[in-house]
Batch of 4 targets.
Target 1
Amino acid sequence: MKKLNTLIEDIYKELDGLSNGKALDISEKDAEEFGNAMKDILLQWATPYERKKETLRMSNVGKPNRQLWYDFKSKDEPLPMKPSTQIKFLYGHILEEVVLMLVRLAGHKVEGEQKEVKVSGVLGHMDCIIDGEVIDVKSASGFAFQKFRNGTLPEDDPFGYMAQLSGYEASEGTNNGGFLAINKETGELSLLIPAEMDKPNIKHRIAKLKRELKLDNPPSLCYNPISDGKAGNMKLPKQCVYCRHKFTCHKDSNNGQGLRVFKYAKNLAFFTTVVKQPRVEEVTNEWQKS
């Protein structure tokens, strides 16, 4: 049985053979199973997601407490998903299935795909188990991929991947799993096995979340505003910019006016404090109407 620590090396070795004129050992059965997996992905993607009442799931227990509180309590509706985002989700799912095909091709054991798990009453579905360890497969942009390759994910984990992994491992009774990531831009692969000390205690995490979600007032800010220049202006950090609750969450900013939005050449900036007016167009009214 092959070991997890040689996974990337083994996959690359198989593909080196293809580059050198050696055919890959893919049977008709393997090809048919891969085709069926592609079919399932396409049909699932093409079916609209029915939004139900917000519940704790293994996929969201790692999100910041305040963001989850607003998910449960707020009436803020998510913005409609852009067509380009729908396409991104489709090829992300496809790439993740491609990665698992390569794992099998390299002689490693894949099992437990989409296995249902339950920890402290919270349900989830793991990606898979490879060589006896829980593995979450991720397709990532070139920028996000660096977190997996450089091992910095534990310090910058806005989507709660570490808590998700901890939950799956708690269910399986294992502790040496991690993340198998593919760079969507280059095809490069990386395997990140986090240190045990970097993983949250998932049972304690779930217990704390259950308590805070019952509170009448939201928990403390997920991320503090950051400085913009030397005049005293403060704006939302990148982790908050894409949150659908940002206007509600920061409604008391700017002395009760709420967030002010300014349009820069490459992006929008959401200011919590404006001491000196930025020299770009303010589009706050447009955002408040949308």
Target 2
Amino acid sequence: MERPVSIRDVAHLDELLSEPSEAAIDAIRRAGGDVIVLGVAGKMGPTLARMARRAMDAAGLTHRVIGVSRFSSPEQQRTLEACGVETIRCDLLDESAVARLPDAPHVVFMAGRKFGSAGNEPLTWAMNAHLPAVICARYRGSRIVAFSTGNVYGLTGHGRAGSREGDPPAPIGEYAMSCLARERMFEYFSDTAGIPVAILRLNYATEMRYGVLVDLARRVSRQEPVDVTMGYFNTIWQGDANAMALAALTQASTPASFVNIAGPEEVSVRAAATELARLLETDVTFTGREADDALLSNGSRGWALLGQPRVSLERMMAWTADWTRRGGDHLGKPTQFESRAGRF
């Protein structure tokens, strides 16, 4: 699909975010069978599930795509159903309800808790550390692609190309610690129950309603100073992250495999804010001074295995500035990427 100069509205945005890559279509074709997406109602889940449906259609398959969530928004559930995604309301912490979920040979695990973790740590640990064990017990005969986060690495020096999959984890704060516990649960059940698992460590997906670029563009447009202490970040178009996650269906293994999902650049906060200010035709001011380290991931293994990103940083910034200038919708959930203490 040719990349547009501007994204018209939310419907156009969701169309772009759910466009499957050739690698995703090939993986769906090779995998065969139904795909169940657990925690489908989050920031990425709706467009990932829709992409899975489009990939199946492109591959000539009629298998089911099933999205599971509590669905606090009935409208979101109706939208998924209209796109050919079957939906099931379920509290995933209710083990009896999980036991009634349909079988599926392929599971995409997207459930988790980040924002609001500080102040309700027990629920964060229940979602991030206990729930994976519940899901592995229910889907021990399936292949599982499980979302995790680059936060498990901790901070790494700028200019060193970012943390790699083989680097030892060094999580900062309870959120990141609970995410490492999530990974360990999937590893344990992969080892002991023989469940093929691929763990995806995502480092900042971007779309027009959410992401580091959105945070920066909104601050710039409001003429708020931009703190550059956390001076660098990675970001990847959410549609590319979705496509890589589906491509990872063929990478699930025993023992579990790990793949970083991250953009190719170490993006400077100062440089990105300056460019967004230029695109927004305004000025920008800064506060703080860049630290020597930041939360950075090396995505080269992921690009080799799951496909290269299709949307460039320059395109994402142009889209973000245009969307911000026109007052487009946003989720109202800042990434808090600047947090160096791991509190979210």
Target 3
Amino acid sequence: MDRKKTIIKTSINGIIVNLILVAFKAIIGFLANSVMIILDAVNNLSDALSSTITIAGAKLAAKNPDKEHPYGHGRIEYLASMIIAVIIFAAGLGAFKESIEKIINPVSANYSVISLVVIAVAVATKFILGIYVKNTGRKINSQSLVASGTDALFDGVISLSTLVAAGVSMIWHINLEGILGAIIAVFIFKSSIEILKETVSDMIGSRVDEDLAKKLKETINSFEIVQGVYDLILHNYGPTGMIGSVHIQVPDEMTAKEIHVLTKTIETKVYKEFNIILTIGIYAANTSDEKFAKLKKDLDEIVKKYKSILQLHGFYVDTRTNNIMFDLIIDFDEKDPKDVRDSVISEIKEKYPEYEYSVIIDNDYSD
């Protein structure tokens, strides 16, 4: 709730500031006959719309999970960010169109000292607003606020270019509005595409953040009996909602009761520290046996020869079925991971033909 309130409060502040700027800039733009100032006012109006969408997205995203959406509604924030990115792109398109028309058919503007002072105040206001909204968005991990803040900062740049164009026009009687507007429009396009790309990446499912993965593994490894942490997978259901799974390696003589207590303790600690719902699987280690330890060492030497193999884990020898099990994490750049796996099996089988081999190819999710 605190996060939602922060998003709404920040967005409302943005709406109020932008509507005030719209009124002032529209009046000055018409009085000065300046296309750039009028365009600037329209951009401020789009900022107010962006903030309204951010508020709507925050409220919808904060809805409790239901039967149809058991993972919650957090990903609605990503949709809000996409809409804002499209608005920014549309604003850039409008700016580019108006600027080209201004270059082809230049119209002299009548700036006054008062109008320049108002524009200068607007520039400072937009930069302060943009930094405030963007930093707040980063602090609470709200992409929609970051997008709104970025939009505000670009409006500040547009306002600054208007001020520069006005100064040049008054001193040297050279009209730069169209040229500056076209250049800035290109940067607006670039910004909107970057926001859209980042948001789509999160919606598709991006790689686990390296720092988060490291801290999670350190927390789990802090339990003395845990011999290794593998296969960390996190699914993002919004900026603040994560569900995932992980495997831990423990001695194979542990009882079901001991394993239950251990995994529940780890899951509780992770939830309290990271607000992540984690399901824990088990890899049993039986390499304390000298024969199996030697087998594992030989297998490690074989694996080292393959540059595309990033990790071997989950090694276990099932003496009842004479079956050796392990997982291989193979680089995404490897064109034929199955061939690599089969080659490893073939080499180890030459040394230990009495065993069967069950090998799973894992993806490099976070290791």
Target 4
Amino acid sequence: MTADPRAARLQKVFPVDLNKFLPEIVLRNYGRWVDRKFHGYGIIEHISETGERVFTVKIAVPPNARLSADTLEQFADIADKLGVGAMRDTMAGNLEILTDSLDKALKIRKAVEKMRFPVGGWGPTLWGINSCTAYLTCTTAVVDSPSITRALGDALKPYFTG
């Protein structure tokens, strides 16, 4: 008799220990960040009391963070090659890639912009534009809000990149 895969899913322990997913440099300095510096509108440097530094590159993604698996794989390759092997999506609907030097952060920005994704969103700038899922998953949608949001995002891109 084959075990029911649903039974195993119900046996998961919550909450999930998210520390096992954090890069070593972040774990070593967790709760010890004392300062930050901005390097343009899309790169922030986090400085720890230990002297270690982590750089975050913020990338705008399309409304509702709809990305193809191929695009996500390209971002993951960039995070693995130039970063510390970590990226995350934000509540504002952006993607962030972490790295350990300003030189690598600048290379990440260049690679991401080559993919035609803008880098920005910190300081006195637009942080991100989101919309409901509309017709893609909603049975009561009356407008194509992702397309409207995309048009707004394209028009307001200079306010994201500074």
